[in-house]
Design a protein that fits this description.
The protein has helices spanning 2-23, 163-168, 214-257, 269-283, 300-307, 309-325, 350-366, 390-406, and strands spanning 26-31, 38-44, 53-58, 64-70, 79-85, 97-105, 116-122, 137-143, 152-155, 160-161, 183-190, 196-210, 290-297, 332-337, 340-345, 377-384, 412-414. The longest helix is centred in the middle third of the chain and has 44 residues, at 214-257. The chain has 417 residues and is α+β, with helices and mostly antiparallel strands. This is diguanylate cyclase.
C-alpha cells in the first residue's frame, strides 16, 4: 500500500513538474532599444542608391516609431528599424517564442492591411567574418500587424532563412538552415514597395523561453523515475529475499505439522488443510490470486486390475515424486484420495497454472513408469481471487477435471474456459 501511495505521489509530482516547467519556469527578455547593450536606429535604401527616407520617432512614452517616406529610385525601396546588440550577440536557443506589439500603416498595392517583415540576423564567422550587416544570416517572417490582435506571438522555429540571402551566400552543409545562437540584429522592415508615407510603431518585443529547457527538464524527470525504479527494485529484492527466508521457515514448519499420506509421502486432505491455514495466516491476501489444480490418473483401475495393487502403488508414488520435483517449494501438493491429487499454487493466476499443468503433463509423457506403462492424467484448473473464493475454486477445479476426463482424458481444462 505504501508503494502505491509513493507511486501516486511520484506521478503527481511529475505532472506538477511538467506544468511548472511549461507555465512557471518562464524567462522573458524585452527588446525595445532602450535595454542595456541595445542600440535602436533606422536605415533606408539610400545606402543602396535609393531615395527613401527613414526617420526615427520617439515620444515621451518610450515607444519607438519609424516614419518612412518611401520613394522610387531603388528596385526594392524599403525602410528598416533595427535593434542592434552592442554588448554581445544574443543566444536565442534559450527561448522558444517571440511576442510582438507592432503597428504598421501605409499604402499597399491592393488596399490590404500593411505588412511588415521581421528579421532576426545571426552572426557566424563562417559566413560573416567581418560582422557586416549584409553578411548576417537573416531569418524572417512576414505578417500584417493590424490583421492580428496584439500581441502577436510566433514560435522561433517559424522563422526561416531568407531565400534571397541563401542564394547569394552558398554555405557548407553544417551552416545551412536556421541558426539563432548568435543573433546580432533584430529588425522590422516595411513589407511592401509602394511609394508613400509609411509608419511602423514598435511598442515592445518580448522573447519567451524556459529557465530549464523542456528537453533537459524531461531528462531530469526520467532520471528521477530511473532512480526511483532502481530504489524500488533494490527494496523489492530485499523483500523477496526476506520472503524466501520466511518461505523456507514456513515450509519446514509445514512439513512438521502437516499430516502426510503414508504411501506417497505428500500431504493428505487434513495435511493440506493445515498447510493452507498456515499459508493464509502468514501471507493473508498476498497469496491471491491462488490457483487450484486437480489431477486424476487416467484408467487407474485398469492398472490395478491388470498389474496388481503393488504396481498401482508404485505408479502413485512415482507420480507424487514427479509432481513434487517439478513444482516450486511454495506450491502445496496433497493426495486427495485414491489416484486423485491436488496442487495449490499461491500467487498464481489461472493462465499460469494451466501452463504449469501442461508442462507437468508433458513431463508425465517422458517419465519411465513401472513395467513400461504409459500413464496419463486429467487436469482441472480454477482460480480463487480471495479467501472467500477457495471452496468455490476447489469445486470448480474438481468439475473441470471431470470435464477433461469426459473430453477424452490426458488434457488440461480450466474452469473459466
Amino acid at each position: 500500500m505504501v508503494l502505491r501511495w509513493l507511486l501516486a505521489l511520484l506521478v503527481v509530482l511529475t505532472g506538477l513538474g511538467l506544468y511548472a516547467n511549461e507555465h512557471w519556469m518562464t524567462r522573458r527578455l524585452a527588446l525595445d532599444g532602450r535595454g542595456p547593450g541595445q542600440n535602436l536606429h533606422v536605415v533606408d535604401d539610400s545606402g543602396s542608391g535609393g531615395a527613401s527616407k527613414a526617420e526615427l520617432l520617439q515620444d515621451g512614452s518610450g515607444v519607438a516609431a519609424m516614419r518612412c517616406d518611401m520613394r522610387q529610385g531603388y528596385a526594392w525601396p524599403f525602410c528598416e528599424m533595427q535593434i542592434e546588440m552592442r554588448e554581445g550577440d544574443l543566444d536565442l536557443t534559450r527561448f522558444t517564442h517571440i511576442r510582438l506589439w507592432l503597428h504598421a500603416e501605409g499604402p499597399t498595392a491592393d488596399g490590404s492591411p500593411a505588412q511588415v517583415r521581421v528579421f532576426l540576423r545571426n552572426f557566424n564567422p563562417g559566413y560573416a567574418p567581418t560582422g557586416g550587416v549584409v553578411n548576417l544570416k537573416p531569418h524572417e517572417i512576414n505578417f500584417a500587424p493590424s490583421a492580428q490582435s496584439a500581441p502577436v506571438e510566433f514560435r522561433l522555429s517559424q522563422f526561416m532563412v531568407s531565400s534571397w540571402w541563401a542564394q547569394a551566400h552558398p554555405l557548407p552543409v553544417p551552416l545551412m538552415g536556421p541558426q539563432l545562437d548568435r543573433m546580432r540584429i533584430f529588425s522590422v522592415i516595411t513589407g511592401g514597395h509602394v511609394p508613400g508615407q509609411h509608419l511602423i510603431r514598435l511598442e515592445r518585443v518580448e522573447l519567451i523561453g524556459n529557465w530549464v529547457a523542456p528537453e533537459t527538464f524531461r531528462l531530469a524527470l526520467l532520471g528521477l523515475w530511473m532512480v526511483s525504479l532502481l530504489g524500488y527494485l533494490s527494496w523489492e529484492g530485499w523483500t523477496v529475499r526476506g520472503r524466501l527466508r520466511r518461505s523456507v521457515t514456513r515450509t519446514l514448519a509445514l512439513e512438521k505439522l502437516a499430516l502426510r499420506d503414508p504411501l506417497t509421502q505428500v500431504a493428505n486432505r487434513e495435511g493440506l488443510s493445515r498447510a493452507m491455514d498456515l499459508l493464509l495466516r502468514a501471507q493473508d491476501e498476498l497469496s491471491f490470486p491462488l490457483s487450484v489444480v486437480f489431477v486424476d490418473v487416467d484408467h487407474f483401475k485398469r492398472i490395478n486390475d491388470e498389474y496388481g495393487h503393488e504396481i498401482g502403488d508404485q505408479v502413485l508414488t512415482l507420480l507424487a515424486r514427479t509432481l513434487r520435483a517439478n513444482l516450486p517449494r511454495d506450491d502445496l501438493l496433497a493426495r486427495w484420495g485414491g489416484e486423485e491429487f491436488v496442487i495449490v499454487m499461491p500467487q498464481t493466476p489461472a493462465e499460469e497454472a494451466v501452463a504449469v499443468a501442461e508442462r507437468l503433463r508433458s513431463v508425465f509423457a517422458r517419465t519411465e513408469w513401472p513395467v513400461r506403462l504409459v500413464v496419463t492424467a486429467s487436469w482441472g484448473v480454477a482460480e480463487a481471487r480471495s479467501q472467500a473464493d477457495l471452496d468455490t475454486a476447489m469445486r470448480e477445479a474438481d468439475q473441470a477435471m471431470y470435464r477433461a476426463k469426459h473430453a477424452g482424458r490426458d488434457q488440461v481444462i480450466s474452469a473459466s474456459a
